[in-house]
Design goal:
The strands form two sheets. Strands 1, 2, 3, 4, 5, 6, 7, 8, 11 and 12 form a ten-stranded antiparallel β-sheet that branches. The chain has 187 residues and is mostly beta strands. The chain has a single domain, classed as 3-methyladenine DNA Glycosylase, Chain A (Roll). It is built from four helices and twelve strands, in the order βααββββββαββββαβ. Strand 2 and strand 3 form a beta hairpin. The structure holds a DNA duplex (12 and 12 nucleotides). Pfam families: Pur_DNA_glyco (PF02245). Its EC number is 3.2.2.-.
Amino acid sequence: MRKILKTEFFDRSSVTVAEELLGKFLVRERKIGEKKEREMYKIVETEAYEGLLDRASHASRGQTVRNAPMYGLPGTIYVYFTYGMHFMFNIVCGKKGHPAAVLIRGVESCSGPGRLTKKLGIDKRLNGKMLGKTSGLWVQWVEDRIEVRDKSYEIRKVKILRTPRIGIRYAGPIWSKKLYRFVLQSL
DNA sequence: ACGATGATGAAC
DNA sequence: TTCATCATCGTA
């Protein structure tokens, strides 16, 4: 069983979405010559950036050209360039007009938001587009069963770690301490 | 532990 | 005009 996550999944608090994205699969479909190549990566690390009040968020000082996609529909792709080196990949959450997003920081085979975008070929061309077949980037849920006895299955157990977000000390004592980073620990 | 990278936006 | 940033790599 599998299903592609729709806009309703992302039409919630970025903190909820960040936690629930753990264990889901980021799918990247790219054209390599004539063929379409599809890769799937299990999401294991995320961070939430929630609303205008969140001082760690790009939206904390209002709308700008760069952060405009954060104000779009849930499921919008927000890619920005930072430190003159790296693209960061975020998924917009909540209603249109409410700036919130989840930064995808790591998948099972690749840790670090900059490394991730490099590996998946995510850059500004995707900025502002919706997740889906058209953009060649989406998230899907796959039933994660393990056989425990003959023809008997159960869902794999996981542990979720919550920590403060990375690299945001500038955000002040309240927002820099929020436990908005989620890490999936496989058991 | 630190410098280079060099888009974007805020502070000055 | 200068400075810091939702990193990462190479060099020390």
